[in-house]
Amino acid sequence: MIGRLNHVAIAVPDLQAAAEQYRSTLGAKVGPPQDEPDHGVTVVFIDLPNTKIELLHPLGEASPIAGFLEKNPSGGIHHICYEVDDILAARDHLKASGARVLGSGEPKIGAHGKPVLFLHPKDFNGCLVELEQA
Ligand SMILES: C[C@@H](C(=O)O)C(=O)SCCNC(=O)CCNC(=O)[C@H](O)C(C)(C)COP(=O)(O)OP(=O)(O)OC[C@H]1O[C@@H](n2cnc3c(N)ncnc32)[C@H](O)[C@@H]1OP(=O)(O)O
Ligand SMILES: [Co+2]
Predict the structure, then answer these.
(1) What is the mean pLDDT of residues 11-23?
(2) What range(s) does the VOC domain occupy (predicted)?
(3) Does the ipTM surpass 0.95?
(4) Strand, coil or helix: what is 2?
């Protein structure tokens, strides 16, 4: 069911510093900061030849990554995102398998303009999983 690795997300305490580090120290192709108010984050995408890295910083009062950054003040890998062909079929299959789909259970539009869903990290070996319809 899951396909390509769409991105690996890293929560960072200082978005500008992290973006600059990827640009100048790691020599990566770094995009501009993008506010995603529906998701409570500001993101910077880094294009790699085979996938993307998503740098995440909290946006607004109720950011879903605030608790994670409190526990990991210097940052850390926050989630991985797999592509699926049919997000509603994937969701129904996962729910039937007993996995917890986060939020309302309805896909939201993600940072690439495509529907996304999140699965509880405790159901996937301690790793928060995002699904994006390719
Ligand atoms: C823009 C979009 C895109 O790409 O298109 C995005 O990615 S938006 C990316 C931001 N959006 C999201 O993350 C949406 C989905 N996330 C959520 O709903 C939330 O972040 C949760 C995953 C439910 C965690 O919420 P919160 O931190 O408030 O809960 P909590 O502190 O009670 O955590 C419950 C347990 O899960 C652990 N936990 C929390 N976040 C975790 C993470 N990212 N990876 C692994 N474990 C994690 C905590 O340490 C705790 O474990 P212990 O009990 O053992 O201490
Ligand atoms: Co993401």
Answers:
(1) 98
(2) 4-134
(3) yes
(4) coil
Digit-coded pLDDT (tens) for 46-93 = 999 999 999 999 999 999 999 999 999 999 999 999 999 999 999 999
Which two structure tokens, joined as six digits, stand for 66? 């605030």
Instruction: Judge contact between 77 and 125, C-beta under 8 A.
Output: no
Considering the entire predicted model, what is its pTM? 0.97
Could you give phi then psi for residue 124, rounded to 5 degrees? -135, 55
What CA–CA distance (Å, rounded) separates 61 from 80? Answer: 24
In the three-class reduction of DSSP (H, G, I as helix; E, B as strand; rest coil), residue 102 is classed as: coil
- Ligand 1: list residues with CB < 6 Å: 9, 36, 39, 41, 43, 54, 56, 64-65, 67-68, 71, 78-79, 81, 102, 110-111, 116, 118, 121-122, 126, 128, 130
How far apart are alpha carbons 35 and 17 in whole angstroms?
Answer: 17
- Check: CB of residue 43 under 8 Å from CB of residue 54: yes
